[in-house]
Amino acid sequence: MLNYMIYILTFAVGSILGLLYSYKQHGEPFVAVTDFNVPFAAVSTVGWVLGFNSGNVILSAIGFLLAGFVMGERPGYGRKESAVGLIIGIIVYVLLKGNGMM
């Protein structure tokens, strides 16, 4: 039960940090970015893969922190990167689960 609380807290902290970072980078009221940000996609992918597949509380918490960082950005930012990272994390989970590695 405590593990899940740690995951929720680290995801919430990551979301708050992502929101603060996003507001620091972009001061305008609202801008919908249509570009795909590759570094944030990599951070999201690493976060979701660690969160789903690490099997370690600390590494999973770090993964959810990273995933929350990208997902918690301002509206219009990070949505595509979060979706790509989540899809890749699920694919890796299914591949590892199917091969009996987990």
Largest sheet: none
Distance between the termini: 21 Å
Rounded mean pLDDT score: 86
Rg over CA atoms: 14 Å
Number of helical segments?
4
Strand content: under 5%
Short summary:
By secondary structure, the chain is mainly alpha-helical. It is 74% helix and 0% strand. The chain has helices spanning 2-25, 38-53, 57-71, 79-98.
Index terms:
flat, single chain, 102 residues, mainly alpha, 74% helix
Describe this structure in words.
With 102 residues, this protein is an all-alpha fold. It is 74% helix and 0% strand. It is built from 4 helices and no strands. Helix 1 packs parallel to helix 3, helix 2 runs antiparallel to helix 3 and helix 2 packs parallel to helix 4. The two termini are 21 Å apart. The mean pLDDT is 86.
